[in-house]
Amino acid sequence: MPVLIVIETENNALKRNAAEVASYGVALAAKLETSCTAIAFHAANANELGHYSVTQVAHVSNGPKHFDAHAYASEIADFAGKNNVSHIVISSSADARFLAPLLAAKLNAGYAPNAVKIPVELSPLTVKRTAFTNKAFTYTQLLGDCNIIGVGNNAFGVIENTVDCIVEEIKAENANSNLEQVSIEKITGKATIADADVVVSGGRGLKGPENWHLVEDLAEVLDAATACSKPVSDMGWRSHDEHVGQTGKPVATNLYIAIGISGAIQHLAGVNSSKVKVVINSDPEAPFFKAADYGIVGDAFEIVPKLTEKLKAFKALG
Ligand SMILES: Cc1cc2nc3c(=O)[nH]c(=O)nc-3n(C[C@H](O)[C@H](O)[C@H](O)COP(=O)(O)OP(=O)(O)OC[C@H]3O[C@@H](n4cnc5c(N)ncnc54)[C@H](O)[C@@H]3O)c2cc1C
After folding, report:
1. Bridge partners of 306?
2. CA-CA to 196 of 20 to 30 Å: which in 81, 122, 127, 220?
3. Residue 266 to residues 36, 230, 246, 272, 278: CA-CA distances in angstroms?
4. Containing domain of residue 277, as a range?
5. Residues with CB under 6 A from ligand 1
6. Helix (H, G, I), strand (E, B), or coil: what is residue 47?
7. Is residue 33 domain-shared with residue 164, that is, in the same domain?
8. How far does CA 247 lie from the centroid of its chain?
9. Quick check: 282 pLDDT over 70?
């Protein structure tokens, strides 16, 4: 029975996580020796999934224009039922965590978010995934006739391989939404923590909000999102939506730069999934260095402006 890959979209285009979810779905289908199809709502560039070995996309071009978990779950469940889908692959984004349990309830399916690799066993389906905010791994057995796997952000990676991709337009049968999007206020020109490839984060070592230009200047040159430790947002130096860690937002970027952050376990719990961690701290004994890929021991007020200038000069070279 085939694999169904649920692709997230925004502004009529594929989201960044589409590449990883597609790569996982194709790899899972290969392991199961079955076919796979992707389903996407409102994606003008749905055929770009062909860059990740996806040969078929069911494209829903009617229905709610903006993400509506209930309406999308009904449509995906219908599609999965009609096509005898046995495995559904989705991301582990906030939207996916809203959608997947609704879908699981409709299909009486098992659901495991935060998968870090292709299932270790196919029967019973056993998924290795992170638990306790990334402090442990767990092996979860999914026992439904249909099962849903949520791929952890940056956990599996992207496998590029271009194939011909056929996009079939389908009409949503459950096109109605109980939600009306009245307005969207978007902060422009600034990457969000969830979507950014790079996050530059500051802690109490920066002494006060007046010094945040160090973080912002470095973030600007790297096209990065800005983040902070919990005390920084608690003290009102930065807004709460920048707080990352166990009780804040999780970060799973390609590059996480921590400036003046000690690396307390609650902070690390939320940022450990980032691929490369760079730590700038004046205390060589700061716990963050143990988790870092690269560390700079020194005063952030000297190092960060120099780093920003060097990166600007490097970028100017083209
Ligand atoms: C239940 C619970 C949940 C929590 N959840 C979170 C969470 O989600 N996220 C989170 O971040 N915290 C969380 N915390 C708080 C956490 O335990 C730490 O207190 C917090 O992460 C420390 O923040 P910090 O590293 O910015 O500050 P500090 O611990 O004060 O560290 C500041 C660092 O800056 C360095 N420094 C000082 N001056 C300079 C300089 N000039 N240049 C370079 N480095 C310098 C210091 O050496 C030090 O390592 C939680 C705590 C609890 C109890």
Report:
1. none
2. 127
3. 39, 9, 5, 10, 18
4. 198-316
5. 203-205, 229-232, 245-248, 260-262, 264, 266-267, 270, 280-283, 286, 299-301
6. helix
7. yes
8. 17
9. yes
